[in-house]
Design a protein that fits this description.
The protein has 217 residues and is of the alpha+beta class. The chain has helices spanning 7-11, 20-27, 44-47, 98-106, 138-148, 186-197, and strands at residues 35-39, 55-60, 63-68, 72-85, 88-92, 114-124, 129-134, 154-163, 168-176, 202-206. Strands 1, 2, 3, 4, 5, 6, 7, 8, 9 and 10 form a ten-stranded mixed beta sheet that branches.
């Protein structure tokens, strides 16, 4: 028998052939991009102690990657979106359609599972992948102007406390980012932007079971 191998020896062996980007593509659920979401104390994974409170998560199916409190991203594009979460998840992208307007009206009803607002296409350098950021709550829609101001620029996602006489909660906050960020080839960006800008008029999928989808104020 040969000598026992130590862990540090194993780690020093030749690196894995494939990149983190290759791994992200291999576990990608269908043609859906992962979504970026601020995980507040109201999210089930945070309640259960499974995810840090007020960190951003990159959610793909039931898998959540911790992006930290202040992830740096690049804002690439945006589109209007109405979302209804029930037994199925219905996404509508044409703001003039009756279905979009129905969901938009229902968003005013408490616990309706309906939201609307701008959805942004992001590139996340720390994960070498593209993702979406849906600003569908009232608080997020107010902050969406700050995301729009960073179009084709880098931004840092943060959070801030909002307080009223009855309630308090954390909501997204977006600020400029001056850190130099690495980007993929322009051809890859163009492909993702083209797909993002031309979605199906309406998309239906099974409701997520990860507990990350929580209605914000």
């Amino acid at each position: 028998m040969g000598d026992l191998v130590k862990m540090e020896d194993l780690e020093a062996m030749s690196p894995v052939k494939y990149s983190a980007e290759d791994f992200a593509l291999s576990v990608k659920a269908g043609d859906y991009l992962p979504r970026v979401q601020l995980m507040t104390s109201a999210a089930e994974p945070c309640k259960k102690g499974e995810f840090p409170i007020n960190h951003y998560a990159m959610v793909s199916g039931q898998h959540m990657t911790d992006l930290g409190e202040y992830p740096d991203v690049v804002v690439l594009s945006w589109r209007p979106k109405a979302l209804e979460i029930g037994e199925e998840v219905i996404s509508v992208y044409d703001p003039k359609s009756p279905e979009f307007q129905r969901i938009q009206a229902q968003a005013e009803v408490k616990d309706s599972g309906c939201m609307f607002g701008p959805e942004f296409l992001l590139y996340i350098p720390s994960q070498t992948c593209f993702a979406t950021l849906f600003m569908g709550s009232k608080s997020a829609r107010r902050e969406s102007h700050a995301v729009m101001a960073r179009m084709a620029k880098a931004a840092t996602l943060k959070s801030h406390l909002i307080e009223t006489k009855k309630y308090s909660w954390y909501a997204p906050l977006v600020t400029p980012c001056s850190t130099p960020l690495d980007l993929p080839a322009i051809e890859k960006i163009q492909v993702e932007v083209e797909k993002f800008n031309n979605p199906a008029v309406q998309d239906v999928e099974l409701a997520p079971e990860d507990g990350a989808s929580v209605r914000e104020r």
